[in-house]
Amino acid sequence: MAKSDIEIAREAVLLPIEEIGAKLDIPAEALVRYGTDKAKISFDHIESLKSKPDGKLILVTAITPTPAGEGKTTTTVGLGDGLNRIGKQAVICLREPSLGPSFGMKGGAAGGGYAQVVPMEDINLHFTGDFHAIGAANNLLAAMIDNHIYWSNELALDSRRVTWRRGLDMNDRSLRQITTSLGGVANGFPAEAGFDITVASEVMAIFCLATDLKDLERRLGNIVVGQTRAREMVRAAELKAAGAMTVLLKDALAPNLVQTLENNPAFVHGGPFANIAHGCNSALATTTALKLGDYVVTEAGFGADLGAEKFFDIKCRKTGLKPSAAVIVATVRALKMHGGVERKDLGQENAKAVAEGLVNLKRHVDNVRSFGVPPVVAINRFDGDTAAELKAVEDGCKAAGVPVVLCSHWANGGAGTEDLARKVVELVEGGTADFKPLYPDEASLWDKTETIAKTIYGAAGIAADARVRGQYAQYQEAGFGHFPICMAKTQYSFSTDPTLKGAPEGHEVAVRELRVSAGAEFLVAVCGDVMTMPGLPRVPAAESIRLNDAGEVEGLF
């Protein structure tokens, strides 16, 4: 019987974090240790790196996710290990896992099998406390809003138009919509409110785009918390909240350094959801890693239509990052689902369905190329994949003119991605990358949204009612027109209908709300039914998580 991820992680021989730092020429005194195997990098050391040249940036993305699984994080870790095995100085950059999925249905996000970042339990549970700090900063602002209204309301903030929500890093559907300040005059003015999961909050998005503490405070101050009766926007800076919020986040903003099972360096920092926010690890971690390694391998959430598009159009646009290549992860099982096979039938050979499901992969390949980034397809191999099914993938990729590499990193670690690593190096050294965002800053907000829908999703166009069109006009006139668009939609389809697999065309993308994230400096176009506070499944993973007699965590996956 195969060992579980947590069993494999527990058997790992971890090096002291100082030895991992030394591989990147980080002196011990520049590490703020969290135990023996985790540390943050000091801001002074980060500042000292600014004159160093950047390494090459590799994005790992994937086809549209299915219940069959793709293994994007596992591939990111495996590729980083594979690059180090072939003699390259490679650093991995990942997002931090949220407690919501860890205790819910999706599980943790530290990789899997023999391609993991460790210590797995710590990374998936609390880690260095970053998410708690982000939640505290988020809720401090909420408390200061209510306090301002209670005492004087000098800003004339309309309590009916407060848009700021509280945050909690847990799946809890009962908190989506609540009523606050019940119980009498001493408790304030009753109002409707609600909670988002911490990773969906604007504070998380700001945290992951801030370049330093000063930039963080500036962005926090720009948060729009609501409006007056005259429809004038009220910002966090006017409530004098940004300074205290920054204080809560001052330690969290420093990137976290850990290691892979093969003792290679990995930054795990920040973690906005990709179907709601921009789905990338912190800009500070990525830019720091680029000063320390020859190659930096990072991931973006969900399929390339969400994660890669936002990585390119938001993170790279805002930070000046220029990726040199992209890896698109696919599995035979997922391709079969996109070819119409039900989950219960995935164990049966069906090369025809694989070939039909390749339309999904091909669109992602075309989309990545539209940004001027050369792609390679990584097939994350499962034991049940047959020769005929794998040949169908190879034939399809050959027809699309994209290189494809078979990988076995889940079972073999970095040794299973050496071929992929060599292909990535070949793409990078070929120098064909010519990165450019999908749309210019000066395009209108409506045109930006429509460009994403038509070019990336294959849609005929976008639609919105008069109220939403009014929001587009309002934010355009208010000076937010140069901001990029962050699309919030289902991750399970190119459309807004999660049941439409493959590569649907000609559909309409309905925008039901446009939200301004003035601190993160993007606007969120909410399309379809997207939850900012998930619920737990009928049988949550939390039911199986416990401590054994040795005091070790069991049940995490």
Tell me the layout of helices and strands.
Blueprint: H1 5-10, H2 17-22, E1 31-33, E2 39-41, H3 43-48, E3 56-62, H4 72-85, E4 90-94, H5 99-103, E5 111-112, E6 115-118, H6 120-124, H7 130-151, E7 157-162, E8 166-168, E9 178-180, E10 191-193, E11 195-197, H8 202-209, H9 213-221, E12 224-228, E13 233-235, H10 242-249, E14 256-260, E15 265-268, H11 283-292, E16 295-299, H12 304-319, E17 325-330, H13 332-338, H14 351-369, E18 375-380, H15 387-400, E19 404-407, H16 409-412, H17 418-430, H18 445-455, E20 461-463, H19 466-480, E21 485-488, E22 508-517, E23 522-527, E24 546-547, E25 553-554
Parallel strand pairs: 3-16, 3-17, 4-15, 4-16, 8-11, 17-18, 18-19, 20-22, 21-23
Antiparallel strand pairs: 1-2, 2-14, 5-6, 6-14, 7-12, 9-10, 12-13, 14-15, 22-23, 24-25
Helix pairs in contact: 4-17, 7-8, 7-10, 9-10, 13-14, 14-15
Q: Could you explain how this protein is built, in words?
A:
By secondary structure, the protein is of the alpha/beta class. It folds into three domains: 5-129 and 252-430, Rossmann fold (3-Layer(aba) Sandwich); 130-246, Domain 2, N(10)-formyltetrahydrofolate synthetase; 445-527, Formyltetrahydrofolate synthetase, domain 3 (Roll), CATH 3.10.410.10. Helices cover 36% and strands 19% of the residues. Strands 1, 2, 3, 4, 5, 6, 14, 15, 16, 17, 18 and 19 form a twelve-stranded mixed β-sheet that branches. Strands 20-22-23-21 form a four-stranded mixed β-sheet.
